Amino acid sequence: MEETPTHSPYKVLIVDDSAIVRGLVTRMLAEDAEIDVVGSVKNGEEALAVMEDGGIEVVVLDIEMPVMDGLTALPKLLEIDPTVRVIMASTLTKRNADISFQAMTLGAVDYIPKPSSSKDLNVGEGFRAELLDKVKAWAEQRRKMLEVEHAAAAAQKAEASPTPPPSEPAPEKPARSEDETADSDGEDGPAGGKANAFRAEMSVEHQQLQKQGRIQRKRFTAELRPRPMQRQQPVQMRPMPQQPQHPAPGAQPASSSADGGHASAEKVASPAQESRAATPSRDPGRLIRDAAIAAGGQAKTAPKVAARSATPSQATRTAPQPKRPVAPPPQKSAAVRQARSGSAPAPAKRMATRGGISLLPEKRIAVDAIAIGSSTGGPQALFEVLRGLNGVRQPIFITQHMPATFTTILAEHITRLTGLKCQEAQNNMPIVGGQVYLAPGDYHMTVEGRGGGRHLMLNQNPPENFCRPSVDPMLRSLVASYGGNILTVILTGMGQDGMLGGRDVVNAGGMVVAQDEQTSVVWGMPGAAAHAGICSAVLPVGGIAAYVKKFAGGR
Q1: Is residue 333 among the annotated active site residues?
Q2: DSSP letters spanning 194-230
């Protein structure tokens, strides 16, 4: 506890009929300064009473309980607060795994397998680490989503405010339109103040989040049809402005974006997040992204700092600013030449096209295999991506961080919900085009052989990236078998699994596409790949299937 969290603790409710389990789980969470366990109850009915008081961000919900079980309580909890994140907790049985997946179709966001006995629970360091990671990740994801919603509402108010209602005096509008510079300064002052006050009021303990219908829950469920997502076209995004605008003192540059991958979203969200700018990132994936930027990319906030530090008295310093954009063109051509030669250019050599993320040029490859890696939030993302891959002729290999038994259920749900035949991998299983192969829990899945003799192999080699199954060994084996004819997709998840294997894919001549931050539950794995400079595209989850089909074909 050397560092005190600078943000308010995440509010968590524990629901389990076992007093021993409740006590142990409560203690595990309460030991972390970033978490506040606001309640610990023994059934769903008591959980509903606690939820009525408001303020709960995450519920850890048991399945089998007297009075009201978890599956019955789940929709009632979401009815009280559609934004609450519910994590199902169950022992590792096939029946409970199946119920957990049913719960995810009803609105639960994740699951966590409980050890089969209280003794195992007490000494289960792995369970504790997974519990803390998932509670924090989902609570933080909820806060980010709400910040975007609040900022969007504030922006709409700000946009509406310059237009005077019929009752307002007419002269005000001409006065504003005559002098745009003075007008924008005047508008930013009052409008910005109102917007900031609105956001501050809405963000304190999220007191307004309990209003039904005010904020819609952002989630993926297995039964949902593919829905329109953020439609930014990352590859077509223009580079960051070569010369920052110079607003009046105190005015905020409207076009600056800390993350080019979500330029339009952050134009709205950045004012609401400004007060949190000094707060260290609580997204586990951002640690990897920041490390990658420090190792090989420009600081994402450099243009913002330069713009804010400029004052009227420093007008003489504006001349050197055009020198900054002059350097990237040679870097871009060098990066393109290196990419075309088949090797991934070093991050320091690339042009930072979007807030520190550089994209490799797309290339036409003969795609013989599709590989997908995912972790936290992965099942929902997998369902959405795979629905759009019906008709592909290539085999699809998936490594999802998930324990045994749960992978069996996941394979069944993929088959039922996507129309693609999915199987858990087995030793020496021959590979057939158009089928999906899922790495079983606790085993690394690899591919051996070439041509028609390719087959799957499983092993229990040491975990990589703290995971087994792991994405990296799967990708290495695919490169050895298919060479560069691989299209790899990195979906939502903690850590950086898939980044090193993805680099091998790119070095061999293949391509990598990552899920964007806006639609990721945790932008760890895809963020690591994006900031390593190995991606040809960073896309919302709803656009990944179409991108894959563009290169892999399909009927």
Answers
A1: no
A2: HHHHHHHHHHGGGGGGGSTTTS------TTPPP----
Per annotation, catalytic residue among 375, 470, 477, 520:
375
Task: Write down the catalytic residue from 401, 413, 444, 531.
Answer: 401
**What pLDDT, on the 0 to 100 scale, is given for residue 369?**
97
Residue 227 lies in a domain: no
Whether omega for the bond prior to residue 469 falls within 30 degrees of 0, making it cis, is yes
Q: How confident is the model at residue 158 (pLDDT cuts 50, 70, 90)?
A: confident
In a domain, 337, yes or no: no
Identify the helix (H) or strand (E) that includes residue 401. Answer: none
How far apart CA 38 and CA 52 sit, in angstroms, is 13
pLDDT value of position 123: 58
Q: Would residue 51 count as lying in a domain?
A: yes
The count of domains in the chain is 2
The set of residues, in sequence order, having a beta carbon less than 8 Å from that of 416 and lying 6+ positions away, is none
Helix (H, G, I), strand (E, B) or coil at 527: helix
Active site residue 81: no
Residues 6+ apart with CB under 8 A from 291: none
Q: Hey, is 523 helix, strand or coil? A: strand
Q: Which of 188, 368, 497, 504 is catalytic?
A: 497
Mark whether 264 and 385 lie in a shared domain.
no
CB 513 within 8 A of CB 538: yes
CATH of residue 484: 3.40.50.180
Residue 16: CB atoms within 10 Å = 26
| Residue 140 shares a structural domain with residue 27 | yes
Flag whether 246 is in a domain. Answer: no
Shared-domain flag, residues 7 and 131: yes
Q: Which of 172, 194, 176, 196 is nearest to 185 (CA)?
A: 176
Instruction: Compute CA distances 369 → 93, 395, 460, whole Å.
Output: 33, 5, 24
| pTM of the model as a whole | 0.57
> Are 426 and 544 within one domain?
yes
Q: Residue 29 belongs to a domain with what CATH number?
A: 3.40.50.2300
The yes-or-no answer on residue 183 being catalytic is no
What's the chain's average pLDDT? 73
Domain with 414 in it: 369-552
Q: Which residue, among 98, 157, 163, has the nearest Cα to 411 in the 3D structure?
A: 98
Express each pLDDT in 432-477 by its tens digit.
Answer: 999 999 999 999 999 999 988 999 999 999 999 989 999 999 999 9
Whole-angstrom CA distances from 491 to 20, 245, 432, 508 are: 36, 36, 24, 21
Q: How many CA atoms lie within 13 A of 160 on its CB side?
A: 10
